[in-house]
Amino acid sequence: MDDEQLRAQLTLPRFPRSAAYDPRWLIRNVMGPNPLWLLEELTARMPLRPGMRVLDLGCGKAVTSIFLAREFGVTVWAADLWVAPTENLARIREAGCADRVFPLLAEARELPFAHGYFDAVISIDAYHYFGTDDFYVGYLADFIRPGGLLGIAVPGLRAEIDRVPEHLRPYWQWEFASLHSVGWWRRHWELTGKVGVLDAWEQDDGWRYWRHWCRVCAQAGEDETVREASRHEARMLDADEGRTFTFALLVAKKPEVGGT
Ligand SMILES: C[S@@+](CC[C@H](N)C(=O)[O-])C[C@H]1O[C@@H](n2cnc3c(N)ncnc32)[C@H](O)[C@@H]1O
């Protein structure tokens, strides 16, 4: 696929901001479903203002952190466990954002910040790795100022399941047990009272966007490992036809005072 074809494939009317980013750069830094499409959808319902202090939790290769700084003028702490901050700094500098995006190594369960430090925490395709623990949202809320925001976008399920659907058996990975429905996430957060859910939704046609991204990466991925993993994921989504997998997006607000 040449550059022009690739750009055409990744220019979708639904995600105009994402379309402005270099497709080769995006694919070179792929770690899962297109993080900019998820972030663009999330932030359309999350009021971010210039100057806000935002934690990008599980930022991976900091693609989302760069997008947040550029699109919204926020200051971003780009925190990740698997990707080294030195590697992310090179990408952040190259994108001209080093004055507004600060990379660091962080374990989500041992965050090195003061309580009340952030105006918002955002997590794209990462929160399910640590956030299914009943106690986690209460722990994380401590780092958000009163009235601050929490927004996540994660791969999820249309509805909770008790067993692996037959059609997904050839593709199932044990880690999929961390995927949940929007309703599950909403209940999980609301019962704590630590945050109030403002909005919770499934991405319309989310599985089709996911599959489209996989198909593009299957052709344009930089190495055969990426191309084969993408082909495999596209086949899984084909077999599922939107019956099981989706994306769950939630925006919540920490109470202005208290939060029991
Ligand atoms: C699938 S990648 C997504 C990365 C990025 N947000 C994106 O969408 O491109 C999941 C990320 O979650 C991070 N992660 C997983 N467990 C974590 C933990 N306990 N603390 C911090 N980050 C974690 C990993 O380091 C990884 O970069």
UniProtKB/TrEMBL annotation:
InterPro entries: Methyltransf_25 (IPR041698), SAM-dependent_MTases_sf (IPR029063). Residues 54-148 form the Methyltransferase domain. CDD domains: AdoMet_MTases. GO terms for biological process: methylation. It holds the Pfam family Methyltransf_25. Coiled coil: none annotated. GO terms for molecular function: methyltransferase activity. It comes from the Bacteria. The keyword Acyltransferase does not apply. Keywords: Methyltransferase, S-adenosyl-L-methionine, Transferase. This is Methyltransferase type 11.
